[in-house]
Amino acid sequence: MIADTKDTAALLTRATESRRYSQNGEDGVLQHLFDLLGRGNGRYVEIGCEDGTECNTRLLRESGWSGWMFDAAHERPDIGLFRNRISRENVLAILSHHKVPRHFDLLSLDIDFNDFHVLDAILAEHRPRVIVVEYNASLGPDLDAVVPYRPDGCWDGTRWFGASLGAFARLAAAHGYVPVYCESAGVNLFLVEQGEWPHPARPLAEIYRPPRYGAAGDGHAQDPASRPFLSSSHYLIPGAARSYTPYGQVSYLVNDEYIGRVFAGGGYWEELEVTQVARQLAGRQGVALDVGAHIGSHALALAALCPELTFICFEPQSGLRLLLERNVAENGLSERIVVSDKAIAHQACPITMAGSFSDGSGAQQAIRYDGSAFGNYGGVQIGVDGEVVDALALDALADLPVVYMKVDVEGAERLAFFGAKHLLERQRPLILFEHRSDRQLPPIVLEALRIPAEVQRFDVVAHLRGLGYAMSPLGQDTLAAPPAVNPLATTVEAAASASPGFTAVEPDTPLVATASCAASIPKILFQTWKSRTNLPHQFAQCRSSFLDANPSFAAPLWDDADNRRFVQLRFPWFLPLFDSYPREIYRADAVRYLFLYAFGGVYADLDMICLQPLDRIAGLPNVLLGRMGADGDFEHSLPNAAMASPPRHPFWLLVIAKLIEAQTRLPHGRPEHLTGPVALKSANDEWAQRPECAQRLVAAVARHLPPELCPAAPSPICILASADWFPFNWADPIHQIYRRGLLAKGRQLTVGECRALFPTASMVTFWSHSWEPEAGLPQLG
């Protein structure tokens, strides 16, 4: 450690700069720094060094130091130079592969674009004593500016790159480093570990050097597109993670109890809802309002699916808004999505947010954005003890061509819609909104806000109906369509009502001709048991929960003989494999996929309990699968206990191909692997990750089919959150303890009690595994 001195400016000056192999004066600065600090282990890491001829570590290497160099275009193992394109995602794995120690003397980083992001990732696990990193001197000494992260981002010759001195100073402080010097060309910043530098930090204005490079000697060219920078605050968020999805990269809070868990598990929050909305808005131009935008996942997906739309996203929570702005910028959507910090209310006024969570595992705990504990960040309400924000009424936007509104304001719907009456009257947009009776604002909040009585009495649903809107459930929300739009319109009637013969849905039911095939989920509930006439009492109760909740559904119950007859008639080429299975459970698994392919509809195991009507999914064009648990990599995470599909979706042919493949590879495997959830997940992974291979397998199976069973055009596969179909997780020890307690006590559950246990679920199963000797199921009372 260097001796203390009051004149910290004299420690490093332009006179200390010299250049032998470095681009500018870095050689001299580093030599002087290590003369002051002393040499440690003599190890270095340099990222972005071209061929190693002109770089910041060559002089050290020739002085007896050793280390690792990485460059995207060059490799010379004889000098420790390895060819790797470094990103935030791979840098730690690459350093680990090369056995780089946690502590080393020098890190030099110059990759021209993502320097801030890669440095942040490195410092999460490594502690170099000295850091040399390129900063963007064109941004001045005080501005806090960081280029939005893109894994493949690279410098394009303009000033839109890297990060400002101010941003690097904040990053350094967050990791325990001190900015000590900028070399005179205005290219590189030097940081020293705080414990090695016992001096007060110098003002940034003192160490800043302007750019002395570029054609005119004043930096690179201006960015003609004026692309935005973010700030260090957008990236120094504890507990933030990133997911790469079909709709773009999404940053989220890992401790967000609902939304974060869905993304952490590999899913996409409310994908079913946003894809259905996109279907209604296809080809529309105009403005979409996302009220209560959270991290922006709804707007991001809709922007990808509806490229003609522009968006205004309202998010008053400052912690979430940083992630929202980050997601917008990182996906290159800043020209299409405007982010507002306003809350939405009945009028323009200041609004106080709640200071604590109102529900979830963090209920009554203070809201903090530090990653410390789980909480329902998407459920934060207006309150009396949180941050104060400005609110506006949506009628202020009544002149905009608003074609869509998503309103998720956690019990403040009366306020939001009361303040949008003029906008709704003029624009009649499609609306997706949440409106729960158990989530309305408490009286203490209404009193504190002095909400007028007419606003408190305002009936959102009645008002929308008065404007001619038609309401339909969609997920946990309500889709309100103006008179000109039918939210669940399909090209033809669902196959379940195509003919009286089809309603019976027997194994030999005539198939609807391909030309008139319904492109949506028909109202058919398919279930199967060993015998039609000998259904165990507990399964009969569960089945009744579906029949009572869905009186308009055809509900065939097939037995083992029906299943075989169906395969023999429709899929005779599959019959040898079907007959070769050692137990009926394998055949019951296989036949459900074949049924969904031939007829479409909903399949549910007989131990599933229906908690909500299935009308909300009838008419959708997608294959619906449900996730169990939060771990999307768990091989059992996509159960085949409940599935839904339009008829002749090619995905089911891929599943059949996987069954054939599994039988060849694991001829004596368990049902889960040969025909059950593991096989289903394998097919879904193939469909999502290796589409060309999936197409070949589908084509191979389709060659066996007659013309009336040819596959239809594919629609997206939607994976529902675990809270929807499979809230009870058999792989969770706590869930299993609860299940065993119910069985031990002979507990009788009513459907109402199940709804109370799982308020957001459409159905639930306690996983009886009826094909195993130890099967058990809590009784329905």
Briefly, what is this?
The protein is an alpha/beta fold.
Shape: globular
Number of strands: 29
Strand content: 15-25%
Helix content: 25-40%
Q: What would you report as the Rg, rounded to the nearest angstrom?
A: 31 Å
Number of separate structural domains: 3
Low-confidence segments, given as residue ranges, are: 1-6, 486-504, 512-518, 771-775
The main β sheet shows up as:
7 strands, mixed
What fold name goes in the CATH topology slot of the largest domain? Spore Coat Polysaccharide Biosynthesis Protein SpsA, Chain A
The overall average pLDDT, rounded, is 87
Q: Which CATH class of the largest domain?
A: Alpha Beta
Helical region count? Answer: 27
Structural class: alpha/beta
Second rung of CATH, namely the architecture of the largest domain: Alpha-Beta Complex
Order of the strands making up the biggest sheet:
3-2-1-4-5-7-6
- End-to-end gap: 75 Å
Describe how the helices and strands are arranged.
Blueprint: H1 26-37, E1 43-47, H2 58-62, E2 66-71, E3 81-83, H3 91-97, E4 103-109, H4 115-123, E5 127-134, H5 165-175, E6 177-182, E7 188-193, H6 204-207, E8 240-245, E9 248-253, H7 259-264, H8 271-281, E10 286-291, H9 297-305, E11 309-314, H10 318-330, E12 337-340, E13 343-344, E14 349-352, E15 388-392, E16 402-407, H11 413-418, H12 421-427, E17 430-433, H13 443-449, H14 453-456, H15 460-466, E18 470-474, E19 477-481, H16 500-504, E20 525-528, H17 537-549, E21 557-558, H18 560-570, H19 575-580, H20 584-598, E22 601-604, E23 608-610, E24 623-626, E25 642-645, H21 651-665, H22 671-674, H23 677-689, H24 691-702, E26 717-720, H25 722-725, H26 733-744, E27 748-749, H27 751-757, E28 763-765, E29 779-780
Parallel strand pairs: 1-2, 1-4, 2-3, 4-5, 10-11, 10-16, 11-12, 13-15, 16-17, 20-21, 20-22, 24-26, 27-29
Antiparallel strand pairs: 5-7, 6-7, 8-9, 14-15, 17-19, 18-19, 22-25, 23-28, 24-25
Helix pairs in contact: 8-9, 18-20, 20-21, 21-23, 21-24, 23-24
